[in-house]
Amino acid sequence: MDNPESKENVRRFAVSQGCDVSVKEEYLEIAKGRSGEGEERPETEAENIKNADVVCITSDRFGTGDEELGEILMKAFLNNTLWDYRPRPARLLFINNGVMLTTEGSETLDALKLLEEEGVGILSCGTCIDYYGIKDKLRVGRVTNMYETVDTLLTSGKVVNI
After folding, report:
1. CB neighbours of residue 95 within 10 Å
2. Exposed e or buried b for every residue in 11-31, given b needs 16+ CB within 10 A?
3. Are 140 and 134 in contact (CB under 8 A)?
4. Which residues does 88 contact at the CB level (< 8 Å), separation at least 6?
5. 44-161 sits in which CATH class?
6. Do the Cβ atoms of 73 and 139 come closer than 8 Å?
7. 6: which residues sit within 8 A by CB, 6+ positions away?
8. Is 60 exceeded by the pLDDT of residue 38?
């Protein structure tokens, strides 16, 4: 498998289905069931989001209307208010042009990196990253896929859509 994101997506899916997974340089070795050996269960993060709050950010602006005001509001939301709020959401999902907030040049990167260090999952839509041609500009969090996005949205406690 020459695509690291695809390999990671397959690995996460296999683990979520109860399989043992060994990551090799060019392939994944997947075995049915868990032997207790191998890598640590990486789906722990996914288990931690069950019934937790998630914020789905679908734009690089907050709200509709004036674009400049929307940019100001989004920066205030991510750079100040969300950082101070407790409890923090388990994950921030960035979809559509919301992925721009996780990439090079974004004025929200520092706050997002701090949130990630505090345990908030920062996930950017892989299809969106590819669509905008900015895969090499991702600076915080990790790329996700639609399976994980749907699983997050449907198993979380409360989803706030922005």
Report:
1. 19
2. bbbbbbeebbbeeeeeeeeee
3. no
4. 82, 115, 118, 119, 120
5. alpha beta
6. no
7. none
8. no
For strands 28-31 and 20-23, give the pairing.
antiparallel
Question: For 104-115, how does the pLDDT look when each residue is reduced to its tens digit (9 = 90+)?
Answer: 999 999 999 999
CA proximity to 48, closest of 90, 19, 8? 90
> What distance in Å separates the CA atoms of residue 146 and residue 136, rounded to the nearest whole number?
20
For the chain, the structural domain boundaries read: 1-42, 44-161
Residues 49 and 90 sit within 8 Å (Cβ to Cβ): yes
Phi first, then psi, for residue 10 (nearest 5°) are: -65, -40
Say how many C-beta atoms besides its own lie within 10 A of residue 37's C-beta.
8
Q: DSSP string covering 62-79, please?
A: SSSS-HHHHHHHHHHIII
pTM, full prediction: 0.75
User: Would you say residue 77 has pLDDT above 90?
Assistant: yes
- Amino acid in the structure at residue 8: E
- In 77-125, which residue ranges form alpha helices assigned H by DSSP? 82-84, 109-117
Distance from C-alpha of 94 to C-alpha of 87, rounded to nearest angstrom: 20
Distance of alpha carbon 93 from the chain centroid? 5
